[in-house]
Amino acid sequence: MSTGPVVVLVGPMGVGKSTVGRLVAGRLGVEYRDTDDDIVAEQGRAIADIFVDEGEPFFRAVEKRAVQTALAEHDGVLALGGGAILDPDTRALLAGRPVVYLSMDVEEATRRTGLNVARPLLAVNPRKQWRELMEARRHLYEEVARAVVATDARTPDEVAQAVLDVLELKEA
Fold it and tell me: For residue 171, what is the DSSP state?
Protein backbone atom coordinates (compact mmCIF):
# COMPACT_ATOMS: atom_id res chain seq x y z
CA MET A 1 0.00 0.00 0.00
CA SER A 2 1.17 3.52 -0.81
CA THR A 3 2.26 5.71 2.08
CA GLY A 4 1.68 8.73 -0.11
CA PRO A 5 3.95 11.08 -1.99
CA VAL A 6 7.57 11.65 -0.94
CA VAL A 7 7.12 15.31 -1.90
CA VAL A 8 4.00 17.41 -2.49
CA LEU A 9 4.57 20.74 -4.23
CA VAL A 10 2.15 23.63 -3.72
CA GLY A 11 2.28 27.24 -4.82
CA PRO A 12 0.83 29.73 -7.26
CA MET A 13 0.35 29.18 -10.97
CA GLY A 14 3.53 29.68 -12.94
CA VAL A 15 5.88 29.13 -9.99
CA GLY A 16 7.40 26.06 -11.65
CA LYS A 17 5.77 23.18 -9.77
CA SER A 18 5.72 20.98 -12.89
CA THR A 19 9.30 21.73 -13.96
CA VAL A 20 10.73 21.41 -10.44
CA GLY A 21 8.55 18.39 -9.69
CA ARG A 22 9.91 16.49 -12.69
CA LEU A 23 13.49 17.37 -11.70
CA VAL A 24 12.98 16.29 -8.08
CA ALA A 25 11.31 13.05 -9.18
CA GLY A 26 14.19 12.33 -11.56
CA ARG A 27 16.77 12.89 -8.84
CA LEU A 28 14.87 10.66 -6.41
CA GLY A 29 14.19 7.96 -9.01
CA VAL A 30 10.42 8.16 -8.51
CA GLU A 31 7.42 9.02 -10.69
CA TYR A 32 6.07 12.56 -11.12
CA ARG A 33 2.35 13.32 -11.08
CA ASP A 34 0.41 16.57 -11.46
CA THR A 35 -3.24 16.78 -10.40
CA ASP A 36 -3.90 19.35 -13.15
CA ASP A 37 -2.79 16.74 -15.72
CA ASP A 38 -5.08 14.18 -14.03
CA ILE A 39 -8.02 16.60 -14.33
CA VAL A 40 -7.33 17.34 -18.00
CA ALA A 41 -7.12 13.59 -18.73
CA GLU A 42 -10.33 12.82 -16.81
CA GLN A 43 -12.33 15.73 -18.26
CA GLY A 44 -10.87 15.55 -21.78
CA ARG A 45 -10.36 19.30 -22.00
CA ALA A 46 -8.11 22.09 -20.81
CA ILE A 47 -8.55 23.55 -17.32
CA ALA A 48 -9.27 26.98 -18.82
CA ASP A 49 -12.14 25.38 -20.79
CA ILE A 50 -13.54 23.72 -17.66
CA PHE A 51 -13.56 27.13 -15.93
CA VAL A 52 -15.35 28.76 -18.86
CA ASP A 53 -17.82 25.93 -19.54
CA GLU A 54 -18.66 24.79 -16.00
CA GLY A 55 -17.44 27.50 -13.64
CA GLU A 56 -14.95 27.54 -10.79
CA PRO A 57 -17.11 25.62 -8.22
CA PHE A 58 -17.38 22.64 -10.61
CA PHE A 59 -13.65 22.74 -11.28
CA ARG A 60 -12.82 22.90 -7.56
CA ALA A 61 -14.99 19.82 -6.89
CA VAL A 62 -13.20 17.89 -9.64
CA GLU A 63 -9.84 19.14 -8.33
CA LYS A 64 -10.65 18.05 -4.77
CA ARG A 65 -11.36 14.49 -5.96
CA ALA A 66 -8.20 14.47 -8.08
CA VAL A 67 -6.06 15.52 -5.10
CA GLN A 68 -7.66 12.93 -2.80
CA THR A 69 -7.04 10.19 -5.36
CA ALA A 70 -3.44 11.24 -6.04
CA LEU A 71 -2.57 11.48 -2.32
CA ALA A 72 -3.95 7.96 -1.79
CA GLU A 73 -2.37 6.34 -4.88
CA HIS A 74 0.87 8.14 -5.66
CA ASP A 75 4.15 7.58 -3.85
CA GLY A 76 6.44 9.80 -5.93
CA VAL A 77 6.49 13.57 -6.39
CA LEU A 78 3.07 15.23 -6.61
CA ALA A 79 2.29 18.77 -7.77
CA LEU A 80 -1.07 20.36 -6.92
CA GLY A 81 -2.87 23.07 -8.85
CA GLY A 82 -2.46 26.59 -7.49
CA GLY A 83 -5.92 26.73 -5.93
CA ALA A 84 -6.12 23.20 -4.51
CA ILE A 85 -5.28 24.47 -1.02
CA LEU A 86 -8.47 26.57 -0.94
CA ASP A 87 -10.40 23.46 0.11
CA PRO A 88 -10.32 22.81 3.89
CA ASP A 89 -10.61 19.03 3.42
CA THR A 90 -7.62 19.10 1.07
CA ARG A 91 -5.63 21.12 3.60
CA ALA A 92 -6.52 18.54 6.26
CA LEU A 93 -5.34 15.71 3.97
CA LEU A 94 -2.00 17.50 3.52
CA ALA A 95 -1.36 17.74 7.27
CA GLY A 96 1.78 15.88 8.28
CA ARG A 97 2.86 15.28 4.69
CA PRO A 98 6.14 16.45 3.10
CA VAL A 99 4.62 19.57 1.51
CA VAL A 100 6.87 22.27 0.05
CA TYR A 101 5.48 25.69 -0.87
CA LEU A 102 7.29 27.13 -3.88
CA SER A 103 7.04 30.91 -3.54
CA MET A 104 7.79 33.86 -5.81
CA ASP A 105 7.24 37.60 -5.72
CA VAL A 106 4.87 39.51 -7.99
CA GLU A 107 7.59 40.72 -10.39
CA GLU A 108 8.74 37.15 -10.96
CA ALA A 109 5.12 36.02 -11.36
CA THR A 110 4.43 38.71 -13.93
CA ARG A 111 7.54 37.75 -15.87
CA ARG A 112 6.52 34.08 -15.89
CA THR A 113 2.74 34.25 -16.30
CA GLY A 114 1.83 37.79 -17.33
CA LEU A 115 1.28 37.04 -20.99
CA ASN A 116 -0.02 33.51 -20.66
CA VAL A 117 -3.62 33.52 -21.88
CA ALA A 118 -4.30 30.02 -20.53
CA ARG A 119 -4.51 31.35 -16.95
CA PRO A 120 -8.27 31.83 -16.45
CA LEU A 121 -7.92 33.61 -13.11
CA LEU A 122 -5.47 36.18 -14.48
CA ALA A 123 -7.30 37.25 -17.62
CA VAL A 124 -7.89 40.96 -16.99
CA ASN A 125 -5.15 42.64 -14.94
CA PRO A 126 -2.50 39.98 -14.30
CA ARG A 127 -0.35 41.89 -11.76
CA LYS A 128 -3.29 43.09 -9.67
CA GLN A 129 -5.12 39.77 -9.83
CA TRP A 130 -2.01 37.75 -9.01
CA ARG A 131 -1.30 39.99 -6.01
CA GLU A 132 -4.91 39.58 -4.80
CA LEU A 133 -4.80 35.81 -5.30
CA MET A 134 -1.58 35.61 -3.31
CA GLU A 135 -2.95 37.78 -0.51
CA ALA A 136 -5.88 35.37 -0.27
CA ARG A 137 -3.80 32.19 -0.57
CA ARG A 138 -0.32 32.80 0.89
CA HIS A 139 -1.35 31.92 4.46
CA LEU A 140 -2.98 28.71 3.18
CA TYR A 141 0.19 27.66 1.34
CA GLU A 142 2.18 28.40 4.49
CA GLU A 143 -0.36 26.49 6.64
CA VAL A 144 0.01 23.24 4.68
CA ALA A 145 3.75 23.48 4.00
CA ARG A 146 6.47 21.83 6.01
CA ALA A 147 8.93 24.15 4.26
CA VAL A 148 8.99 27.15 1.92
CA VAL A 149 11.41 27.40 -1.01
CA ALA A 150 11.71 30.74 -2.79
CA THR A 151 12.07 30.40 -6.55
CA ASP A 152 12.96 34.02 -7.38
CA ALA A 153 16.20 34.37 -9.38
CA ARG A 154 16.87 30.64 -9.11
CA THR A 155 17.12 28.10 -11.89
CA PRO A 156 14.80 25.06 -11.82
CA ASP A 157 17.82 22.91 -10.89
CA GLU A 158 18.63 25.19 -7.95
CA VAL A 159 15.01 25.07 -6.76
CA ALA A 160 14.90 21.27 -7.10
CA GLN A 161 18.09 20.99 -5.02
CA ALA A 162 16.62 23.33 -2.39
CA VAL A 163 13.50 21.11 -2.18
CA LEU A 164 15.66 18.01 -1.66
CA ASP A 165 17.78 19.82 0.93
CA VAL A 166 14.88 21.26 2.92
CA LEU A 167 13.21 17.83 3.18
CA GLU A 168 16.58 16.11 3.73
CA LEU A 169 15.96 13.71 0.84
CA LYS A 170 18.84 11.81 -0.73
CA GLU A 171 19.14 11.42 -4.48
CA ALA A 172 18.69 7.94 -5.91
Answer: P
